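Section 4.2 – Deliverable D4.2 (structural model, holo form)

The reporting period included a commitment to supply a predicted holo structure for the target in complex with coproporphyrinogen III. Inputs used:
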Amino acid sequence: MRQAGRYMPEYRAIRKKASLLEICHTPELAANVTLMPVDQLGVDAAIVFADILLPFEPMGLGLSFEEGVGPVIARPIRTAKDVDTLPEVDPDADLGFVLETVRITSTALERRVPVIGFAGAPFTLASYAIEGGPTRSFHATKRFMYNNPDAWNRLLGRLAEAVGRYLAAQARAGAGALQLFDSWVGCLSREDYTRFVMPHTKRALEIAGESAVPLIHFGTGTSMLLDLMADAGGDVIGVDWRIPLDRAWDAVGPRGIQGNLDPAALSAPTSELKHQVRMVIQQAGGRPGHIFNLGHGVPPTTDPDRLRAVVDMVKEGSVARV
Ligand code: CP3
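Output (structure tokens):
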């Protein structure tokens, strides 16, 4: 994830002329950026260049990205009435530009390399919609969840429908796999995840699953939630570096796992980076269905050569095992 981005000089050059949102809204540009890591790094999949927060535009929440802050939501959701007056999102009409990016990239790659479509999970989207921007505490989100449980369920229910349909539309446009990002769900207890989130995530994945392409269900800090996330759905569970892959497999059972190199290892000396990559492969233990990935996004300060080195190490490691 965040496979393309600020660590690439070519991306920074495009960003001098266009904002992140402008790139997303211009399918030719977004497709260009999507393809960069495939050509430059030799990765086995492209992830469509978009953002999980794009559905906030048609929802009328007012989305912008500010330098040094991150996403800013101009009209956050604060009351039950805010939930009930949200317009419905029609992925084909409202997010057609992302679908067009998927179409262009999947055609360009001729399915030689699959394109991963993606969306934010109901909880992670709700947290941005309620907080109005990035947070560490998720206090406003949880306050809303505990104090307005009915409105919370209506909000997550609507998000689940929108996101499920959006993912299915990306599959129809040519995506070969779909990833649901529940990046911040690790801030919840098992009890709260089960009661307030799981049914909605399950619904989103159910709708997306009608498209019959593999579903990847990702979160960070989720070591205590993995069995529940697996119950919610996903052919593949994405995990971060805080849990060794063998233990993650014990929790999710016989399905694929995507992960889990610590992105910070990209700044380590080569010998340490090699050790970290080897550890991930060793903990995967040759199980079928390991998709090597970082545990979270590429840090903007990363030297692209380090990523190329990781791709080479992984490919050598996989070949050595065959
Ligand atoms: O190749 C790719 O992976 C790019 C596509 C992509 C982006 N965002 C573009 C982007 C993907 C898969 C995302 C997902 C995304 N966006 C997530 C889930 C994955 C995760 O990291 O947990 C989340 C939580 C967001 C919301 C978001 N978008 C934040 C918090 C930020 C600010 C982060 C920062 O470091 O400034 C963004 C901005 C954003 N989205 C960038 C990119 C490449 C930063 C670069 C820029 O401003 O040009």
